[in-house]
Amino acid sequence: MSWYDKTKHAVRFWLLRRLPACKQTVELISQSMERPLTLRERVLLKLHLWVCMWCQWYLEHLQLMRDALRVQKNENDEVEVSPTTRLSDEARARIRRSLTNNS
Amino acid sequence: MSEPQGTAPHKSSDVSVWLERHGDYLFKYAVFRLRDKAAAEDAVQETFLAALKAYDKFEGRGSERTWLVGILKHKVTDHFRRMTRETPLEPTEGEGPEHAEFFTRTDGWDNHWNNEYAPIDWHATPAQLLERGDFWRVFSDCLSPLPQRTASAFTLREVDGLTSDEICKALGVTVNNLWVMLHRARLHLRNCIERNWFRKEPTKPQS
To answer: Within this chain, do residues B104 and B192 fall inside the same structural domain, yes or no?
Structure first.
């Protein structure tokens, strides 16, 4: 490791020890998807992300999951969830009966 | 019924055709959100009954399926409301696993990522995630170990895009409760998806 890398490493760990740890940070990351963070929270989060690649990826993955799940879906996409899940014959018959009785 | 004779059989036969065409789809849609087959069957039945009653309002405009899904969404929310009234959230049910093992418990280096569970670079875009044919299956399998209410909260939030307020009302939980549920769900799901897709080493037994 070069002198520069060593210093960077040391600064990183020094900062990480003083900031809220990853466990608290991932909670904050999740909340940032639900509400606007306070200024203090935003600063602490930015600093933590600046020195912690893991939490950077965590944030990126949550965003990825949200984008993938919310993407304008073709109506049939979700059906893949469980190709074998079907309305049972009994349920189908019961619904048909209730439709006849109510018409 | 007050309908003139002769029109009712035609309506109900139309709705019966819809049952054949869209019944399975609506059922899957409901199971995915309610995570309970019996409740999903009820919701589908209520949807078709409501469709029969409101038949005149539909008048063949737009897609039948979209219209039916619109009704089903309300039935799903109604179900949660009923369930909430009948069985308030018990403290014992909990919001889901805390996954304390994901984080270190070393003196002086507490609560940071445990190497084994630390996120890795996925090198993926949302489109690439979806292109994997098994995306929805993995997602659904990863949701299933979570408590039913937590899994439903996550689906309503991230798939259907409901607001925190709407979900709190439907599930009868406080906003702080909901945030804990969503956080636990995300922590669990992210790890599960990574373990199933992005890690090369043999998968560990599912928690």
So the answer is: yes
